[in-house]
Each structure stands twice: as C-alpha cells, then as structure tokens.
C-alpha cells in the first residue's frame, strides 16, 4: 500500500489514512492561522493582479502579509515577477 495515490493523470493525493491522522493531530489554532494566511495571500495576489490589469482601479486596504509570503508582482516584492516592467510583458 502506498501513502500517495494517483487519482487522475498527473494528479496525486495523500492516502485517506494519512489525511485522517493529520486531521486528528492538527491543532485548531494552527489550522485557523494557516487558513487566514492563505486567504490574506490570495486577497493580496488578486488585488495585485487587478491593479496590473486595471491600474485606474482604486487600491483597497488589506491585512499585512506574513513575512516571506509576498505575491511576485506586489509593490513590496523583493524580486520582480514575470510581468514586471524590468522583465517586459508576459
């Protein structure tokens, strides 16, 4: 028995027993914090994309990002992403 299952071509997931074990041992606070970081990152990424597509849109206030989790084209990113002016258009 493998702990990794291929459920579709080129798509893999962990075996149900591994997911159950992780769910039983996950701390609710850590899980909630991880989900919050994911949502904040997704909001920043979407907002950055919106401003790249339509620079005339009004910027909105977002929660601070977790250090090290910065969307590639964010104004606070340290490394330019693929659509940055230094690298030219996608």
3D structure, described in words:
The structure is a single chain. With 90 residues, this protein is α+β, with helices and mostly antiparallel strands. The protein contains 2 helices and 2 strands. It has helices spanning 16-25, 28-53; strands at residues 4-8, 11-14. It has a two-stranded antiparallel sheet with strand order 1-2. Strand 1 (4-8) and strand 2 form a beta hairpin. It is elongated and about 55 Å long. The termini are far apart.
Key features of this structure:
alpha+beta; 2 helices; 2 strands; 10% strand; two-stranded antiparallel ribbon; disordered C terminus; 90 residues
Brief sketch in words of this structure:
The protein has 90 residues and is an alpha+beta fold.
Strand order within the widest sheet?
A: 1-2
Shape: elongated
What value does the average pLDDT take?
A: 78
| Topology order in helix (H) and strand (E) letters | EEHH
What integer value in Å does the Rg equal?
Answer: 18 Å
Note the total helix count: 2
- The amount of helix comes to 40-55%
Instruction: Give the low-pLDDT segments.
Output: 78-90
How far apart the termini lie comes to 44 Å
Structural class of the helices, strands and pairings?
A: alpha+beta
- State the major sheet: 2 strands, antiparallel
Strand content: 5-15%
Number of E-state strands:
2
Topology:
Layout: E1 4-8, E2 11-14, H1 16-25, H2 28-53
Antiparallel strand pairs: 1-2
């Amino acid at each position: 028995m493998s702990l990794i299952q291929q459920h579709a071509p080129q798509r893999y997931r962990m075996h149900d027993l591994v997911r159950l074990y992780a769910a039983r041992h996950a701390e609710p606070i850590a899980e909630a914090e991880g989900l919050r970081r994911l949502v904040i990152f997704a909001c920043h990424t979407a907002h950055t994309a919106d401003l790249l597509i339509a620079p005339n849109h009004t910027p909105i206030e977002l929660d601070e990002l977790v250090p090290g989790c910065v969307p590639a084209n964010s104004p606070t990113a340290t490394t330019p992403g693929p659509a940055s002016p230094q690298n030219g258009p996608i």
